[in-house]
Amino acid sequence: MTSNQNETGRVAVIAGGREPIAGAEEAITQLRTRGVPGFAVDVVAPGAPPSRLPYALVHACGPSPAALHVARTLGVPLAASIHTTAADRTFFRACTAVLSPSATADAQLLALGVDPVRLARWEPGVDVERFTPACYAPDAMPAAGAGASARVNVVFAGRLTAAKGVGLLADAFALAHDRDRRLHLVIAGSGPEEQRLRRRLGAGATLLGWLEPDALARALATADLFVTASAEETFGRTVLEAQASGLPVLAVDRGGVAELIESGRSGCLVEPDAGALAEAIRWPARRATLRERLATGGLR
Which ranges of 43-100 would DSSP assign to H, the alpha helix? Predict the structure, then answer.
């Protein structure tokens, strides 16, 4: 990015972890909007040395040995932001500051031995011009039909990995579907569990694959219920995206996701148990007024 005469330094943003692109985008947004006065921002590819510009700070999007090396080489502070589970003790203890999105992430970092005075809060946000009920698009979901037998489209969005709780979600949905054939699970995402989910859910689910943000916004605005079963999230951005889209949210009462929901008002929280989650899926599926109330609470 270009510099101007009023700038006193530059920040090198180095992507790391499992979601480097999203992490870099979030870091740049936060650095611009939270006020890093007098600084410009450069994105540096993982493993690539930065240019010879006079960097005053290195910002790592998740654990990045490359970022630690660059900061030590340049003799400048290293900051890191948490985008996935914090587990790299050596890296995070070497940071001057660690930017954490939730109390759940705080606890993970403290367990690694990070000095609490080095923790600071920043909370990822949602583009409410992109994620909005106005994105409703009937062709974004499997045909729902009409009347008492109308299909209820339950959507999940995220990486299809065990850490995201997709096994629990599949087990719970299968139980719920056995008792209410109107239910249909729509999965937006990709990952190593995809084929296992296809075999487990069969015709009861539609897998859309990974969606571009605008396509995801249309899917969320058009579905009937959003469900996530992850108990390990440090934040849970898709919950905010669903709430901003006017979609009622159901989640397990664990991790950073639970910090985003006031159960019964802006969504529902349930224990991470297949039977309990199945019943929780069926409850709002049968009650349009409940879905509307939870959706309104989430928007607020």
Answer: 65-74, 89-93
The contacts of residue 117 (CB under 8 Å, 6+ apart) are none
HSE on the CB side for 187, CA within 13 Å?
A: 29
Residue 251 identity (one-letter amino acid)? A
Length of the chain counted residue by residue: 300
| 10 backbone dihedrals φ, ψ, rounded to 5° | -135, 150
Q: Name 13's bridge partners.
A: 43, 59
Task: Find out whether 286 and 180 touch, Cβ atoms under 8 Å.
Answer: yes
Instruction: Give residue for tokens 């009861």.
Output: 204
Beta-bridged to residue 207, according to DSSP, are 187
Secondary element (H or E) of residue 12 = strand 9-15
Residue 229: which H helix or E strand, with range?
none
Give pLDDT tens digits for 218-230: 999 999 999 999 9
Q: Are 230 and 165 in contact (CB under 8 A)?
A: yes
Q: Which residue has the tokens 């530059």?
A: 10
pLDDT digits (tens, 9 = 90+) for 36-77: 544 555 666 655 556 656 778 888 888 888 888 888 888 889
Element of type H or E holding 176 = helix 166-179
- At 144, list the tokens: 């729902």
Residues ≥6 apart with Cβ < 8 Å to 235: 82, 83, 101, 102, 105, 123, 124, 256, 257, 260
* Helix, strand or coil, per DSSP, at residue 235: coil
Separation in Å, CA 109 to CA 20, 86, 118:
20, 6, 10
Task: Return the structure tokens found at 282.
Answer: 């069926």
